[in-house]
Amino acid sequence: MKRLVILGGGESGVGTALLGKEKGYEVFVSDKGTIKQKYRDVLLNNDIDFEDQKHTESKILNADLVMKSPGIPDKVPLIKQIRTQNIEVISEIEFASRYTKANLVAITGSNGKTTTAALTHHILKQEIEVGLAGNIGDSFAKQLLEKNYQNYVLEVSSFQLDDIKYFKPNMAILTNITPDHLDRYDYKFENYIASKFRIVENQSSEDYFIYDADDPVISNHIKNHSIQSKLLPFSLVKQLDEGAYYSNNAITITIDNNKIIMPTQNITLEGKHNIKNAMAASTVAHLLKIRKQTIRESLENFQGVEHRLEHVLRINKVQYINDSKATNVNATYYALESMDAPTVWIVGGEDKGNDYKELFPFVNEKVKAIICLGVDNTKLFEAFGNMVDVIVETQYMSEAVKIAYKVSEAGDNVLLSPACASFDLFENYEDRGRQFKNAVRNL
Fold first, then answer.
1. Could you confirm whether domain 310-441 is CATH 3.90.1720.10?
2. Which residue of 50, 86, 199, 436 pairs with 29 in a disulfide if CB–CB is 3.0 to 4.6 A?
3. Is 16 annotated as a binding residue?
4. pTM for the whole thing?
5. Is 111 marked within a binding site?
6. Does domain 3-90 have CATH number 3.40.50.720?
7. Domain boundaries in the chain?
8. Do domains 96-301 and 310-441 have the same CATH topology?
9. 114 is in an annotated binding site
10. Is 110 part of any known ligand binding site?
């Protein structure tokens, strides 16, 4: 019996453990931190051997196969040790994909992947059986076990792509590439770019690669590397013969001379970046023969993703917007770009080496006050101190929201769009977003 060792007892780890057991592996789960109660219960109920708060090397180095959680960097000594013993190390999407013949739509990118994945799933599920997994909701492995759909939409991160071997989506979407997570890539942007492009490395000429043709990083990489799959670009600025483009308030999609045109006046998602997400999702739907009417109606009734430009409440004619999922500068760029009223901006957290320059035009034009919410806000004061009349700092969400309430006037927006990771003051971006929403509701 082959031994499968799983490092990390979270969603992807426990999903892999269940699928591994079902497929006849001897399974062992090891987590250096504490495994949450809900996951402990699943492991106990399924008689799966596990440990937490430690990694026992003797129980790990005798593995035939290791699945590591995307949160564990390659630099960790234990991982190096596993690799020197030539034990195969893979990610959960790689493990799960070995046990399905389903049609896979995989979506990655620095920003927009969650919205694009949720929107693609929303359109497809109107007409076909389809699961949504990966970084979003249940793990892919667990869904294979429970549902075994014919189609899956997977949101995949660069960390998951780092540990693939044969993973081959029928349709791959790359939304954009901006510097992010560089601490995991030796601070080399090209390493991060290569990691994102692994999404197409096993594709053949039967498969499709859907990408943002306006992104210079992507276009440049495609010019200099050969990609086997059929290219379907999308663009806001140029008219394309093949792929999707936007002009005169409509999206035109052409695949093999088969053209559809969709008006966009009534799309629920706001902002130019969401037109791009809509083009990517609609291209997949068109490939899978979803009817044009269904695609259009789905774009018009899609509610968006929690913590991504989510309209919370309007109080005294001030709109409160939760964009906690903006954990990098580029995501906040989109948020500020889509603001159409004077904005009180709540920003800050754990800085990943941010360069705030690209936000200057929007801050000058739209932001009337800045509330810094982080342990260390020096960099924000240096960047924006001279641009706004009001800039204050706090370490409590409830206080940040109270200050925003005081400095805003009728017709303003209050926007939480941190441009930073959340780990200095919050458990994760979801926790940060929920605290914001609770504080707004308590005003």
1. no
2. 50
3. no
4. 0.85
5. yes
6. yes
7. 3-90, 96-301, 310-441
8. no
9. yes
10. yes
Class of domain 96-301: alpha beta
SS (HEC) of the chain: CCEEEEECCCHHHHHHHHHHHHCCCEEEEEECCCCCHHHHHHHHHCCCEEEECCCCHHHHCCCCEEEECCCCCCCCHHHHHHHHCCCEEECHHHHHHCCCCCEEEEEECCCCHHHHHHHHHHHHCCCCCEEEEECCCCCHHHHHHHCCCCEEEEECCHHHHHCCCCCCCCEEEECCCCCCCHHHCCCCHHHHHHHHHHHHCCCCCCCEEEEECCCHHHHHHHHHCCCCCEEEEEECCCCCCCEEEEECCEEEEEECCEEEEEECCCCCCCCHHHHHHHHHHHHHHHHCCCCHHHHHHHHHHCCCCCCCCEEEEEECCEEEEECCCCCCHHHHHHHHHCCCCCEEEEECCECCCCCCHHHHHHHHHHEEEEEEECCCCHHHHHHHCCCCCEEEEECCHHHHHHHHHHHCCCCCEEEECCCCECCCCCCCHHHHHHHHHHHHHCC
The annotation status of 109 as a binding-site residue, yes or no, is yes
